[in-house]
Amino acid sequence: MMGNEEADDLHESREEMESLVLDEPSNGRSSASATVPDHHDPLLSSSSSSFSDRHNPNSSLNAFLDPPSYAEAIFTSFDPSSNGHETPQLSSNSNPRSSDYLYISISDPQKEQELSNSLVPGGTTFYTYLITTRTNLLEFGGPGSEFSVRRRFKDVVTLSDRLSESYRGFFIPLRPDKSVVESQVMAKQEFLEQRRASLEKYLRSLAAHPVIRRSEELRLFLEVKGKLPLAKSIDVASRVLDGAARLPRQLLGEEGMDVNAKGGRDLLRLFKELRQSMSTDWGGVKPLVVEEDKGFLERKERLAEFEQQLSNMSLQAESLVKAQQDIGETMGELGLAFVKLTKFETEEVLFESQNARAADMKNVATAAVKASRLYRELNAQTVKHLDKLHDYLGIFLAVGNAFSDRSSALLTVQTLSSELATLHARIEKLEAASSKIFGGDRSRMRKIEELKESIRVTEEAKTCAEREYEQIKENNRSELERLDKERHDDFMSMLRGFVVNQAGYAEKMANVWEKLAEETSGYAKDGS
Amino acid sequence: MIATQRSVSGSSQSPRSPSSQPYLSVSVTDPVKLGNGVQAYISYRVITKTNLPEYQGPEKIVIRRYSDFVWLRDRLFEKYKGIFIPPLPEKSAVEKFRFSAEFIEMRRQALDIFVNRIASHHELQQSEDLRTFLQADEEDVQSKVSDVVLGKEKPVEESNPEYEKLKHYIFELENHLAEAQKHAYRLVKRHRELGQSLSDFGKAVKLLGACEGNSLGKAFSELGTKSETLSVKLQKEAHQLLMNFEEPLKDYVRAVQSIKATIAERANAFRRQCELAETTKLKEINLNKLTLMRSDKVGEAEIEYQELKAESEEATRMFEMIVRLMNEEIVRFQEQKTLDMGIAFHEFAKGQARLANGIANAWRSLIPKLEACSSSS
Questions:
Q1: Shortest Cα–Cα distance, A203 to chain B (Å)
Q2: Choosing a second label site near B14 at 20 to 30 A (CA), which of A91, A149, B89, B175?
Q3: Which residues does chain A have within 8 Å of residue B353's beta carbon, measured at their own beta carbons?
């Protein structure tokens, strides 16, 4: 199909039919090759990739070049069979095991007024985005559901915080930055588009995570119209002291907000006290988190090494992309210079030989401009392939968080253990002491009873914390397994895509140059 | 040597066979750095092989330096007005670059071409200065460095529309060529830069592969190695591009600049001719006046008038010769350039095709290896 479309968000590349109008002196518009009027010179257009050309040639110069043919069309170097995890931007975000899909798209940023803020005249404004979901997951109401909600960025922050609390130990994708500076500095439209795109990518990566996609938090976020029914956080104490998020409901009541039960209040008090004792301890000896799992430690180290090399490779990849861009641009400039020369040699013919030279230069110009376009397309694809590196750097940040969850949980267990030991020691001391003071017994007995109660509560807390810790360890393990497999698949696919891309475009360029070599073969010595 | 030159003159050409046909073959070889510090310079061996009677013998070797070539060029420029003297490579301004192997080789080649073009030009090859240059022992050659002033277009009063068109063409041509050459040079640099970044990329990929033990690691390491291989190809091609594409373009630019110098000469000659014609006319009028007045200054005036008239005729002849030669030369020049550039374009195309095919093959060969890695995981 012919059109003037540029490669868009989809990884599949479209044909870039930027045709140049052929205006030979002998024939008029050539109708044999169906040319579409040129709306922008290939060296002028801004592609959807982040590189823009700096040229501004006279479009009448296009008249000297032949339009590109079908044979030079872009091909796709992306695996159509790649799994959903690799390409979160793919329209069908499907789990390879079943046919479940959860497709999210974000659009239509709109300005809204903040109602409650009455200090500022006119109120403050913020932007909301329309989030549309299409899914057949059962949690969302069965096959073929489609629904939309409006959310603002703050809501996304809430969602992200809540997920971090609820899914400790998992590799949860990181949400986009708040970008306070950018929002002031960038042009409004540009900023909104950037934010829209990053939010979309984030939500899609959540939808791609096998566990997170089924979370209640995500469902509420995507489905419930109106105000987001998620509190900013469960409670302060549990945010500081890990492990409280998954406390049995009978202790904490509903979703963390209702703390009627006495046991729940006691626990909260306990954790608050623990928090205080912990913070005062920072000044003294910091409790050591002793990770006993050697296997885990080894894995962690290897991952750290991988991450570092990945970061380095990502840097070099950026350089490579820049170098490819540069050579493409220079080739284009060279082509343009020859276009001008061709025009010059045909404008006023004083000598016979000019015609031959003009013809030669036109061929060179054509080849150079074609090569320049090919470089540009090659690079746009390269960027998309190597983007995976950046994605993984993000994933490693999520891994870091998950490992932190683990050490925090372990710290809690160990802290509670030592607290228990302290309590037991105090009881022992009290029980051993005989009462010499009249009436002292009663207060001593009362103290012992209080301590025993504390021990009971603490033991329960410790059991909870241990359960939490084990859960997190398991989450870490299953996630690491998932990461290893996906990492392997993703990188293999990335490498393959990169190589196929390079080979394909190199072949196209070879064709362009071979054609020019043939056209100039008359000048070759010894018929080389 | 005439046989291997790209710019073989279309006009009378001495064939290579040494026996009966007259031939003059020159080569500039063996650049050697002499002198110390600021005084350092490069000397070349200039080997002349000939059977022409005007020359001292079948073979002569002399040592010359760049400023000697400049001297030759200046002498020819003085004596053969109207003829396009082949251009010289420029003096390099950058100190560091002056003794780089690449620069020396490029200059040697350009000087070789320079001398051979002179030797194969039917007029210039008969120059006595050429003979001096090729044969005189070192002490005899006067090394005089003089820069030919290629000025902006001096106001010319020739009202010849054809000639105006030609001048405009030449001046515009220089601009366009210079731009093309500038981009060609940049393209060389880009090739080098891409090569460098491919090399760095390859190293980084290999390091990443070393972290992985399994098939993925192997895949990375294969890719990294390939990347480094391609880096080498790119560096090679950069060099080819410089020699076979950028340099001919630069040469073309220099040639056009040389024509501009001739244009300036023609303008001078024209002006001189006009001035003399004017003065002669005045003298004639004066003479007639004196004759009518029967002045005793008539004799003197007559002599002066005759002298002036001769000079004027000489100037006219000179101008006409320049015009004639120029017209011949320009046709020859144009045809020569078409040939030169055609070859350069062909080499450019071949080089790029070679590079692209090399790259394609290298990456293609990697694909089955990658498939093997992924299936064996």
A1: 29
A2: B89
A3: 510, 513-514, 516-517
- Mean pLDDT for B273-286 is 87
Note whether A316 contacts B204, CB cutoff 8 Å: yes
Give the pTM.
Answer: 0.69
As given in the structure block, the two tokens for residue B77 are 């420029």
The reported pLDDT for the residue numbered A86 is: 37
Is B108:B88 a contact under the CB 8 Å cutoff?
A: no
Gap between the Cα atoms of A363 and A64, Å rounded: 10
Across the range B254-269, mean pLDDT stands at: 90
Q: Which residue of A has its CA nearest to B203?
A: A313
- Flag whether pLDDT at B117 surpasses 50: yes
Q: Tens digits of per-residue pLDDT, B144-168?
A: 322 233 333 344 467 788 888 888 9
Please answer yes or no on whether A523 and B349 come within 8 Å at the CB atom.
no
Nearest to B253 by CA among B81, B90, B48: B90
Residue A255 carries which side chain, given as an amino acid letter? E
In B, which residues are within 8 Å of A327 by CB distance? 187, 190-191, 193-194
* Three-class SS state of A110: strand
Cβ–Cβ below 8 Å for B180 and A517: no
Q: Which of B176, B331, B349 is closest, CB to CB, to A340?
A: B176
Mean pLDDT of all residues in B22-28: 89
Q: Do A337 and B176 touch (CB under 8 A)?
A: yes
Q: What are the C-alpha distances in Å from B4 to residues A145, A505, A514, B60?
A: 78, 36, 25, 20
Query: How far apart (Å, rounded) are the C-alpha atoms in residues A201 and A206?
Result: 9
Task: Report yes or no: B256 and B170 within 8 Å, Cβ to Cβ.
Answer: yes
Distance between CA A371 and CA A503 in Å, rounded? Answer: 14
Residue type, B89: P
Give the closest residue to B49 by CA, choosing from B65, B62, B31. B62
Average per-residue pLDDT for chain B: 84
Query: pLDDT tens, B212-243?
Result: 878 888 889 999 999 999 999 999 999 999 99
- Taking one residue from A and the other from B, the number of pairs with CB-CB distance under 8 angstroms is 195
